[in-house]
Every structure is written in structure tokens, then in C-alpha cells.
Amino acid sequence: MKNIDLIKLPFSKNNPILVQVLGVCSCLAVTAQLKPAVVMAISVTVVVALSNLIISLLRNTIPPRIRIIVQLVVVSTLVVLVDQVLKAYMYDVSKQLSVFVGLIITNCIVMGRLEAFAMVQKPWPSLLDGIGNGLGYSVILITLGFVRELFGSGTLWGYPVVEKLGLYGIGYENNGLMIMPPMALILVGLIIWWHRSKNKDLVEQ
Amino acid sequence: MAKKNFSNTYIFIYSAVLVVVAALILTVVSVSLKPAQEKNQRAETKQMILKTIGIEATRDNADVLYDKHITEADNYYTFSGGIILPLKGTGLWGPIWGYLALDNTGTVVGAVFDHKGETPGLGGEIATDKFASRFIGKKMDTQAIHLKKNADKSNPYEVDAISGGTMTSNGVTAMLAKAYEDYCKLSSSPIMHRTTIDTCNTREEATE
User: Fold this and answer.
1) Is B14–A66 a contact, with Cβ atoms under 8 angstroms apart?
2) Is the pLDDT of residue B203 over 60?
3) Distance (Å, rounded) from C-alpha A146 to C-alpha B169?
4) What does the alpha-carbon distance between residue A12 and residue A199 come to, in Å, rounded to a whole number?
5) Would you say the pTM of this structure is higher than 0.90?
6) How far is B2 from A145, CA to CA, in rounded Å?
7) Which of B4, B71, B104, B190 has the fewest CB atoms found within 10 Å of its own CB?
8) By residue range, what is the domain housing residue A172?
9) Which residue of A59, A81, A91 is in closest CB contact with B40?
10) Residue B40 contacts A, CB cutoff 8 Å
11) Where does the pLDDT of residue B201 fall: very low under 50, low under 70, confident under 90, or very high at 90 and above?
């Protein structure tokens, strides 16, 4: 596989959410608004990329019998770092994400990429794979955050778009279902449907 | 993965070194970011306290507004209309806390709660304005407020508990009872309501 594909493929044919179906739980939980979605996307991308890099550098020294524990130690250390930085510089967002930052540790994308890729690949491709998958995850997260905040709360990044357009005046109402987690699942389903109809080779026989 | 045989000694040393390195990194980061984090937490506390008396502050102007409206005493706060009691307790998963503003007759004028890790949608609901607003108009004079399922709205000492959040609700009740005890000990406070002191004193004698 060419290096460029490592970045490109997770955007479509190997998207972690749409195709690998990893990291769905967090994508339902944090996408009610755009801002936490973007912060979560950045945090996960940083964690996947760095943990892929570190595990790949260590891969020949890691005893296979304790490899999962080693992976967990590396991932948790990185996640705690991200959490601490958010608490210091983006306190409101860190409050909003609360438990979900900690749950990056259990985000299947991270462990999935470590086991499937970083344990057997050189550091540079591993870093690219991490960035690619992080970005692939980000695209979906940000799309969901955009749609759900716009239709659910009538705002974007906290800015009252719908109110400024004067739509409430003519009887428009926010869709309360949009801010509930089940709606995120339905939206992901719709995206997967659209995605598969564009990529027929992904459809299982 | 290279098929190597790793000895037990190697595995032990490897894991020991790994955790020590991880611990070192985390310690350094934690110590160096502490001042910034504490500043945020202090501002948040001030925002919460201001909210109980109906002032919405942002993180930036919290300091100024706080100094203007709130006076700190030993372990409580005062504002022009009464007293603000700090609440501290435990929920189901971790610490819960809050502030309760009482006017000079012991009537609640505002409340605010927060939690570290209660379940979102269940116990976590205590952090919502909807829950906090149930306290307004209730009384902390002759007895503490407690949470109850299907509470009687006209009873000034009962507040409706959270459905699905019984453990957290119990935590809130315990926290309020604890705050009430401390409140009773504040008899020297100049703004204390007479009845409250009397009741508290009687209660203490009765228990002795």
C-alpha cells in the first residue's frame, strides 16, 4: 500500500465509522453540537496518531503476551495528557466532553489500529495510518455535529443561525429529536446507506 | 511481529520500566498545568456561587462580579440578601457538590449543583437548571430539605427526586442534611434567622 493511501482510504473506502464500524459509541455521544464534536475529533486524531507511532517504534520490544497491556498504558497516558491539556486551556469543552475524553481509551479505533496496523508496520506508515483514521473519524463526527446542531438547536458553533435568518418568525421549530443520541445513529445509518450506494464493492453479498 | 521468545524477567522489567516512564511523564505534565487548571476551577466555583443569586457570569468577569456581590466567611458566603451555603457530598460514582442561597428567613432563593461523574441523563440531571429550580421557594429553617419520590409540591421541605437517579438523589439529601448541621452551628452569624438558631439549639439539646 502506498503511503498516500494510508491517509486517503480512511476517508472513504476504509472509513473507521462507515466501513470498519469502530468508534460509533463516541460519535453518538458527542455530536449534539459542533464544538465538542470538533474537539473530540482533534483529540482522537492526536491520540490515534501518537499511539500508533509509539507502539510502532516499540513493536519489536513488546512481548506478545503483554502487548494489550502495553498498548493500554500508552493509550491511557496519551489520553490523560489530552484531558489535562483540555482542562487547562479549554475548560468549558472539557466539562462538556467530561467522561468521553476518558473513554477515548476504550475507543475501538485506537486499539483497532494498534492491533491491526502499528504492531506490524514501520513508524512512518503507522503515523500516517493513525492520522488518516483519525481524520476519517473526524469527517463523520463533524458532519453529524453540523447537522445535529443546526437542526436540533438552530445554532452553529453556538451562533444562532436560524434565529438570525428569522425562520422562527415564520413558524419554524427546532427538531428536538436531533439532539438525542438515537438520531445520531439514524444519521450514521443514512450516511452508510449513501456511502454504500456510491461504493458498490463494499456491499456484502 | 518478530517471533521472539521473551523471558519472564524481560517481561517484568519491561512492564516496570514502561509504567515508571508513563508515570514520570504524567507527573511532569500534571504539575506544570496545575496553575492554569486551578484558575479555571476557581472561576467556575465563582460562577456557580453567583448563579445561586441569579447572576450569570462568564469565566472572564466572574472575578469582578464575585468580589462585588459575595463576601466570604469561614466556610460559607454572604450576599446582600442572605447566606450561601456550600454543599459537599457523594453521589453514586463520585463527588457531588453545590451551593444553596438562603434569604434571611431561610427560604431558598437559588441553588446550583454539579457532579464529577454521575450518569448523564439520570443522576447527572442534578446539574441542570431544571433540577436546581425545584429548590427555589423551599425552606431550610426548622429542618433540612430532603429529596423524595413524588414529592408534595406544597411541602417546603420536600423536593422531587430524580427518576432513575435514586442513589444520586440520596446523596443530595445527605449533602443537604450535612449542610443544615453546619448551618446550625453558625449561630454567631449576624444574619442568621432567629427561629433557626432556636430550633437548632433545641434540636442539639434534644439529641444530647
Assistant:
1) yes
2) no
3) 35
4) 9
5) no
6) 42
7) B190
8) 19-193
9) A91
10) yes
11) low
Asked if residue A21 lies in contact with residue A114, where contact means CB atoms within 8 angstroms, the answer is no
What are the chain B neighbours of A84 within 8 Å (beta carbons)? 29-30, 33, 37
- CA-nearest residue of chain A to B17? A70
Q: Is B150 left (phi over 0), alpha (psi -120 to 50) or beta?
A: left
Residue B121, pLDDT score: 66
- Locate B76 and state its grid cell: 460559607
Do the domain assignments include residue A204?
no
Domain count, chain A: 1
The answer to which of A41-45, B2-6, B111-115 has the lowest mean pLDDT is B2-6
Given this model, what pLDDT does residue B4 score? 67
- Residues B53-92 pLDDT 10s: 888 888 788 888 888 888 887 778 888 888 888 999 999 9
One-letter amino acid of A67: R
- Show contacts of B51-54: CB within 8 Å, 24+ apart: B51/B99, B51/B110, B51/B112, B52/B84, B52/B99, B52/B100, B52/B101, B52/B109, B52/B110, B52/B111, B52/B112, B53/B79, B53/B81, B53/B84, B53/B101, B53/B109, B53/B110, B54/B109, B54/B110
Flag whether A60 is in a domain. Answer: yes
Is residue A5 in a domain? no
What pLDDT shows up at residue B35? 92
Given a cut of 60, is residue B188 above it in pLDDT? no
Indicate the residue type of A40. M
pLDDT tens-digit map of A158-190 = 788 888 888 888 888 888 888 888 888 999 999
Residue B119: C-alpha distances to residues A95, A107, A192, B91, B96 (Å): 14, 19, 30, 10, 12
CB contact under 8 A, B22 and A74: yes
